[in-house]
Amino acid sequence: MTASPSLPASPAAPAKPPPLRELLARPVPVVMGILNVTPDSFSDGGDYLAPEQAQAHAAEMIAEGAEIIDIGAESTRPYGSQPVTAAEELRRLQPVLEAVVALGTPVSIDTMKAEVAAWALDHGAAIANDVWGLQRDPEMAGVVAARRLPVIAMHNRDAADPAIDIVDDVKAFFERSLTIAAKAGIAEELIVLDPGIGFGKTPQQSMITLARLREFAALGRPLLVGASRKRFISTVVPSEPKHRLGGSLAAHLIAVDNGARIIRAHDVAATSQALRVARAIRDSR
């Protein structure tokens, strides 16, 4: 009797990405890779506009150690960015998101618009990254609460004020964000706080924020820091954005020493290596 030919195995479904709480429980800080599908981001504007370029770059960052991919379709750089409509933001995002989600690594949507966040979260994004900490779009907190997904609340200001105590300002902002989140029904364990290095701050205030990062620990939420290629580095050592790797690594290692649990970076391979080596050295004491 002739054996029946075996049927080809069905392709395995992509593995479900680990939830944020699992990533945060690991000993080495989480690396969040930056994917800007914008023409005017301060460092890589225009580099990944084509969907195939965006997907390839996301895959490259995952191979280099990124455990979250943060997709932004509107530049939020403090100087010179042009606001875009939700329709334009979605036009840039829609050809890219599904392909990046399919890579199997958690995706966060970097936006200040509830409409954009809602669409992205409904199409596979696992985290909302609100660059105005739930305080700019009044619908954002409700969008996040309804989907029971994590949110990153970033500190921001319309303009820097060198006269203020920036740490006090960040604390007060975070307290407002946490109050808004609680009223909307967002579980506290789903909230990450980002002090917004470079946003609404002078270069000196950005450095003060990094130096005093531990003061935000009293709020009881994990901290994300994104100092990658930021302008304050150039005030110490004059340099163009893509030549600020050394300064970015220095800032991020100090941030981790001061309590950061997620590092948002352009240069994923170097950042991942630096964090892992630093952890190995600490563990060798």
Which descriptors would you attach to this protein?
13% strand; eight-stranded parallel β-sheet; single chain; disordered N terminus; TIM Barrel
Overview of this structure, please?
With 285 residues, this protein is α/β, with parallel strands linked by helices. The chain has a single domain, classed as Alpha-Beta Barrel (TIM Barrel), CATH 3.20.20. 40% of the residues lie in helices and 13% in strands. It has ten helices and eight strands. It has helices at residues 20-24, 51-64, 86-101, 114-122, 140-147, 166-184, 203-211, 231-236, 245-257, 268-283, and strands at 30-36, 68-72, 107-111, 127-130, 151-154, 191-194, 223-225, 260-265. The chain has an eight-stranded parallel sheet with strand order 6-5-4-3-2-1-8-7. Strand 1, helix 2 (51-64) and strand 2 form a beta-alpha-beta unit. The longest helix is centred in the middle third of the chain and has 19 residues, at 166-184. Residues 1-13 and 41-45 have low confidence and may be disordered. GO terms for molecular function: dihydropteroate synthase activity; metal ion binding. Pathway: Cofactor biosynthesis; tetrahydrofolate biosynthesis; 7,8-dihydrofolate from 2-amino-4-hydroxy-6-hydroxymethyl-7,8-dihydropteridine diphosphate and 4-aminobenzoate: step 1/2. Belongs to the DHPS family.
How large, in whole angstroms, is the Cα Rg?
A: 19 Å
The end-to-end span amounts to: 67 Å
Give me the strand/helix succession: HEHEHEHEHEHEHEHHEH
- Report the average pLDDT across residues: 91
Number of domains: 1
